[in-house]
Amino acid sequence: MLLVDAVQSQLYPLELWPSYILTILFTYDPKKPFAVTELEKVIAYLFGNRVPLTMACQFFAACSGFPLPLTKRLFSYLYEIWSQPDRRPTFEYLPNYFDMRDGRFKRVDGFPCFPNLNQSPEIGIEGTGFPNVIRSVLRGMNQTVEEEED
User: Fold this and answer.
1) Residue spans of beta strands (DSSP E) within 1-150
2) How many Cα neighbours within 13 Å face the side chain of 96?
3) What is the C-alpha to C-alpha distance for residues 132 and 150, in angstroms, rounded to an integer?
4) 93 to each of 72, 90, 107, how far by Cα in Å?
5) pTM (whole model) above 0.85
6) Torsion, CA 5, CA 77, CA 111, CA 35, rounded to 10
7) Phi, psi (5° rounding) for residue 33?
8) N or C: which terminus of the chain carries fewer CB neighbours within 10 A?
9) CB of 112 within 8 A of CB of 127?
10) 3-state secondary structure of 31
11) Contact criterion met (CB below 8 Å) for 12 and 6
12) What SS3 class is residue 96?
């Protein structure tokens, strides 16, 4: 299956993703200030929305141009910690993500953030400010086939 199709079938079409996630995916630069925080937001979003690790790594690397081996190392570390309750940091230090199925923000432990607020992020490629660039990258990615797990 093509990588973009595989990710969208696992989650939702990219047009329905939060714009801030799409912006990070397609502009990630490890030399920027707060790059680690941005990376954590993307990993939390993919982890919390139950995108399998291998698929998440391949997709991030394809969108951002970040090297796949390094992507795997960073993603694997957080996926492993967040999936084991006894290894997770306390809830104050857990990142939040927008849960696509519930339409609200949650922490990576699955508990809602801001339960009394009805927050919803800006949605879609248009909200990034560079939709044509993203569409161009996606056209190139449509040739990328998802690699199966080893």
Assistant:
1) 96-99, 104-107
2) 14
3) 35
4) 22, 6, 9
5) yes
6) -80
7) -60, 145
8) C
9) no
10) coil
11) no
12) strand
Q: Which of 16, 59, 23, 55 is nearest to 41 (CA)?
A: 23
Cβ atoms within 10 Å, residue 1:
11
Q: Where are the domains of the chain?
A: 11-141
Q: Which residues contact 76 (CB under 8 A, 6 or more apart)?
A: 53, 57
Residue whose C-alpha is closest to residue 104's, from 93, 91, 115, 88: 115
d(CA 45, CA 98): 6
Largest Cα–Cα separation, the chain:
44
Give me 12's structure tokens. 């939702």
CA dihedral sign of residues 31, 33, 36, 42:
negative
